[in-house]
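Researcher: Please predict.
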Amino acid sequence: MTDIKIRKAEGTWVVRAGGAVLAESKNALELSEDGYPNVIYFPQEDIAMAFLDESDHRTTCPHKGEARYYSIVTKSQTLKNAAWSYDDPKASVDRIKNHLAFYPGETLAVERV
């Protein structure tokens, strides 16, 4: 059994892509899962959803459920499947419902400010 812990992410967290702040939250959650880097989940109400387009991509995690993906549209490019959410997560991780997480990389930053 995979050990997953969810706790409030301390401080204020932001997501930046293409020179824009896509999310800023004092209510983000930090998910720790054995064998993976910690992931910050942002409440949907703290995200500029106008920058996100739902894609057809889906994955299934045996511990969290089915993930739905979003591409992020910036002025200069589209970051395919750069964010994901669990609309109906398993009961053990139901705190991440209505939250999105983002893949940090060269063109997308997830950071505490």
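Model: The chain has a mean pLDDT of 96.
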